[in-house]
Write a structure and sequence with these properties.
The protein is mostly beta strands. 14% of the residues lie in helices and 45% in strands. The longest helix is centred in the middle third of the chain and has 9 residues.
C-alpha cells in the first residue's frame, strides 16, 4: 500500500534553516594544517570526504578567503587531522583563534614538511592535486602520501554540538 503525501511548495531555504538542516548530518571535526615560511598554519574543517581509493585521495572544502587555503596553494601540501574526543578544545581554537597563535602550546610533529597534530584519531598527509572554486568555498583535491589512525575516539559534530561516539573495537589494518 502506498500513501501519498504532499510536501509544502518548494522554496529556497534561508541560511539559518539550511545551517540547521546540515547540522543534522553528523561529521568528524578536522584541523587542516600546512606549513608557511613563518611556521605552521591551520583551520578547523568538517567538510572532508574520501574521494577515491585509486589513487588514494581526499576532498576538503575550505572558505575561499581562508588564510590556510592560501598557504596550502603556496606549499602544495596539507594534512587532515581528525580530532579525538580529548582534543575537542582544539576545534574552537583553530576555528576562531588568532591564526598566528593557533599552534601555541599544541603538540605536533612534521611529516613530509607538513605539521601533523599529535594525538589525533586519524591523520592523512596529502599533496595538492587540484582546486575547484565553488561559490564561497574552494575544494581541495589531495592525494594521500601518508595515512594513519589510532584507537582514540574521534570527536563528532551534530547539531552544532560535540559528541563522543561509544567505544568501538578498533579494527586492525
Amino acid at each position: 500500500m502506498t500513501i501519498e503525501t504532499t510536501l509544502p511548495t518548494a522554496s529556497l531555504p534561508d541560511q539559518g534553516t539550511f545551517r540547521r538542516v546540515m547540522g543534522r548530518f553528523p561529521t568528524f571535526v578536522t584541523v587542516i594544517t600546512t606549513a608557511t615560511d613563518t611556521g605552521p598554519a591551520g583551520c578547523t574543517a568538517n567538510a572532508v570526504l574520501s574521494l577515491s581509493l585509486s589513487p588514494a585521495s581526499i576532498l576538503v572544502s575550505l572558505r575561499s578567503a581562508s588564510r590556510t587555503l592560501r598557504e596550502i596553494r603556496d606549499r602544495g601540501a596539507f594534512a587532515i587531522n581528525t580530532l579525538s574526543w580529548e582534543q575537542r578544545a582544539l576545534a574552537q581554537r583553530f576555528a576562531t583563534g588568532d591564526p598566528a597563535r593557533r599552534f601555541d602550546g599544541v603538540a605536533h610533529s612534521w611529516s613530509d614538511g607538513v605539521p601533523v597534530l599529535d594525538g589525533c584519531a586519524a591523520t592523512v598527509v596529502c599533496r595538492l592535486r587540484d582546486t575547484v572554486e565553488a561559490f564561497d568555498h574552494t575544494l581541495l583535491i589531495g592525494t594521500a602520501e601518508y595515512a594513519d589512525c589510532t584507537p582514540d575516539t574521534p570527536m563528532v559534530l551534530l547539531d552544532g554540538q560535540a559528541h563522543r561516539l561509544p567505544p568501538a573495537e578498533f579494527p586492525s589494518l
